[in-house]
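Section 3.1: Structural characterization of target chains.
Under the original work plan, the team committed to producing a structural model for every single-chain target entering the pipeline before any wet-lab resources were allocated. The record below documents one such target. The sequence was received from the expression subgroup and is listed exactly as submitted; it comprises 479 residues.
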Amino acid sequence: MGIVAGLDSSPDFTRIVVCDTDTGAVLRQGYASHPVEGRPSDVDPQAWLLSLGEAAGGGLLEGVQAIGVSAQQNALIPLDAQGATVRPALTGGDKRAQVAAADLIDALGGREAWAQAVGCVPQAAQPVTKLRWLAKNEPENALRTAVLLQAHDWLVWQLLGRPLRRTTDRGGASGTGYWSAGTGAYRPDLVDLALGHQAMLPEVIGPSEAAGTTPEGLLISAGTGETMAAALGLGIGLGDAVVSLGASGSVMAVHPESLADQSGMITSLADATGMHLPVVTTLNAVRTLRGTAELLGVPDLETLSELAMKSTPGAHGLVLLPYLEGERTPNLPHTAGTIAGLRRESMRPEHLARAAFEGMLCGLADALDVLRGRGVEVRRIFLLGPAAGLPAVQAAAPSLFGAQVVVPQPADYAAIGAARQAAWALGVSQGSLDPRTPPAWQGAAAQILEPGDDLAVGQAVRQQFVSVREQTHPGAFRP
C-alpha cells in the first residue's frame, strides 16, 4: 500500500485529500479558504500557495509519496522572462473580456474557423480571450508577457521549485483556446493573434507522466483542470455523461474523439485519461429555480421542491422556457424566458414550481441532445451539484433525460481525481501500473434512479417543451 495526495485549488478554497493508492480510500483531509483581496477576477497566485500551506498543516502530507494538482480552469498567469508574474492572475468568467471574444472570432474568420482550429469558439473566460483583453487594455503588461501558465501549471511549477521546464496536461491545455484536442498540438499563431507576439507555452505531457520530483523525492503528477479531475475522481467512462447543476448548467461526456462543432455549442476538451470531454453549457440552471422561488415568495429551494411535488408531471400544462439570462444552448444571447400554457386551472404556485424544475431539466436535456446528435453515447448520467438532491429534481430527471441517473454522495471529487492521477503516475514510475489505464479505484457511493414506468410520461413532457421552444424560437435549436 502507498499513500498519495490530491489537492484542488478552486476559486475560493484549497482542499487536500490523502488516499490509499490501491483502493482510493480517503485517509485524511485538509481545507483552507483563499484570502480575498481586490477584484475577484484579479488574484495574486501567491494566495493559492498560502492556502495550500494552511490546508496541508498539521502533518497532513506525512508519508505521502506523490501529489496530484487540480485547479480552477481558465485562470491565466502571465509571467515575464524571469518567471515573475506580470500582473495578478486573470481568473473566472471575466465579463471584461466579452468584447475581446467577439474581436477574436472576427479576426480568425468566424466561429467555424475557431471550431476547426481548436475545437471551441472564444468565450470571455478562456485564456486566449484574456490575452486579447490584456493586449488591448494593458499593452505594457502584454509586452512584458513571455510565458503563459494556467493555475494548475503554476502550482505544479511552484511545488517543483520553479524549474526551467514548465509542463501542463492535455486536459488543461484543451481549454486555453490555443491548443487543439483534435490534433494534440498548440496553435502559436493564435497566441500571436491574441497577444500580439509569441510567448513560451508549457510542454503538454501525457496523463500518466510525472511533471517531476521535488528535492525531497516527492513525485508530482501532470495536474489538470477541475472539470477533468472531477471526471477522473468520479470514474466516468464511455457511455457516461455528467450533468452539473450550478447557477448555469453543463453537460459533458466521455468520447473517444474530438468533436469540432461550427455552431459553437460544443466545447471540445480533452480529459485526464487520454480520451475526450465534449462539453455543452446552458446559462440557466439553478438560477431558474432561485428566480422562481423569489417570484413565489418561498424561502429556499427545498421549499420550492416540496411545492413542486404537489403538482403532477407536465405541471398542469405549464411550460417554462428558462432563458432568464439569454441562452447558449440554443444560441439566444438576447432572449428572455417564456411561460406558455397559462389557463385558469394551471395558475397555481405548485404548477409554476413544477414547470421551473421541468424547464431547467429540459434545457439540460437539449444539451444532452447536442451530444447525442454528434454520436456521443449516453447510457448513464451523473447528476452533480447541491440541487441534485432535491426530490423534485430526482423525480423528474430520469424520465426527462431518458436514461439511468446516478446521484453521487457529496465528496471532493476534483481532489480525489488529482490523487488518482498521482497514484497512476507513481505506479507507472514504479512499473506496477499500465501507463494507458488509471488505477481501478472504488467508485463513488451513489443513489441510482431509473426512468421506469415514468419514461413515457417524461418524454411527453419533454416533447411539449420542445414544441413550445420551436414555436417561440423557430429554427434556433439544431442539435
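The chain has a mean pLDDT of 94.
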